[in-house]
């Protein structure tokens, strides 16, 4: 099992460019999440998908959109990248049907906006 | 929403000593409290978690305590080793789909 796979691992964009970050999990989890991680601020939830077909805003959704393509895949899109979106982005998944199950994280995408 | 505060932000300990990280949460309905360890350049990984019906949980050199009345929980690492050097995050959840994370503690174990 690969777990949670994120692509790409690194990306440099210019201000105003668009970009889609991909996330796929092979654990048959229902819930998926996108976080951003900035120094000294921990992990902040951008969007999440409780189950296939649903998406909801998290703590910092502005400037982002998401698509839950199917049960396995959850993508994050930056329509017009801004330098403030320079961050490390983590995708995670979880199976809420098992009770207090933890979230499992991918390796992250390091995104720089120039 | 839930607000989780974590202290200290940095912690330096001598190898073999203990390390303690404390977190407070704001929502008394929170009932699940995981701790994640993140090594430099790596993904966060769960190291231990506790539910609100339990006051303490241990796993080898790691323990977590929970005080529901005071709304705080702590991570204890005993007999620290160089491989314990990492950033540790606490989090809280109230049985829904979302975790609220603390800002993290950078632990450095000095040889």
Report on this structure.
Chain A is 0% helix and 49% strand. With 114 residues, chain A is mainly β. In chain A, the strands form 2 sheets. In chain A, strands 2, 4, 5, 6, 9, 10 and 11 form a 7-stranded mixed sheet that branches. In chain A, strands 1-3-8-7 form a 4-stranded antiparallel sheet, with no helix packed on it. Chain A starts with a strand and ends with a strand. The model of chain A has no long low-confidence stretch (mean pLDDT 93). Chain B has 111 residues and is mainly beta. Chain B is built from no helices and 11 strands. Chain B has strands at residues 4-7, 10-14, 19-25, 32-38, 45-51, 56-59, 62-67, 72-77, 86-92, 100-101, 105-110. In chain B, strands 2, 4, 5, 9, 10 and 11 form a 6-stranded mixed sheet that branches. In chain B, strands 1-3-8-7-6 form a 5-stranded antiparallel sheet, with no helix packed on it. Chain B is globular, with a radius of gyration of 13 Å. Classes of the chains: A mainly beta (114), B mainly beta (111). Chains A and B meet through strand 5 and strand 10 of A and strand 5 and strand 10 of B.
Oligomeric organization of the protein chains: heterodimer
Mean pLDDT of chain B comes to 94
Strand portion of chain A, in percent? over 45%
Low-confidence region ranges of chain A: none
Mean pLDDT reading of chain A: 93
Strand percentage of chain B: over 45%
Helix content of chain A: under 10%
| C-alpha geometry of chain B | globular
- What is the N-to-C succession of helices and strands of chain A? EEEEEEEEEEE
Structural class of the helix and strand makeup of chain A?
mainly beta
Rg over CA atoms of chain A = 13 Å
What is the β-strand count of chain A? Answer: 11
Choose one word for the global shape of chain A: globular
């Amino acid at each position: 099992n690969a777990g949670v796979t994120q692509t790409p691992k690194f990306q440099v964009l210019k201000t105003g460019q668009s970009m889609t970050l991909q996330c796929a999990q092979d654990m048959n989890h229902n819930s998926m999440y996108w976080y951003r991680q900035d120094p000294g601020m921990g992990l902040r939830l951008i969007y999440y998908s409780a189950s296939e077909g649903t998406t909801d805003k998290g703590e910092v959704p502005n400037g982002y959109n998401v698509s839950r393509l199917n049960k396995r895949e959850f993508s994050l899109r930056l329509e017009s990248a801004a330098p403030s979106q320079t961050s490390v982005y983590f995708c995670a998944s979880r199976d809420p049907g098992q009770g207090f199950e933890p979230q499992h994280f991918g390796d992250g995408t390091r995104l720089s906006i120039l | 929403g839930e607000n989780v505060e974590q202290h200290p932000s940095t912690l330096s300990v001598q190898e073999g000593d203990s390390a303690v990280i404390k977190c407070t949460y704001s929502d008394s309905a929170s009932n699940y409290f995981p701790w994640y360890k993140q090594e430099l350049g790596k993904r966060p990984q769960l190291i231990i978690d506790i539910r609100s019906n339990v006051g303490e949980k241990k796993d080898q050199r790691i323990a977590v305590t929970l005080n529901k009345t005071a709304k705080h929980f702590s991570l204890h690492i005993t007999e620290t080793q160089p491989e314990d050097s990492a950033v540790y995050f606490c989090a809280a959840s109230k049985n829904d789909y979302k975790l609220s994370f603390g800002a993290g503690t950078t632990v450095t174990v000095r040889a």
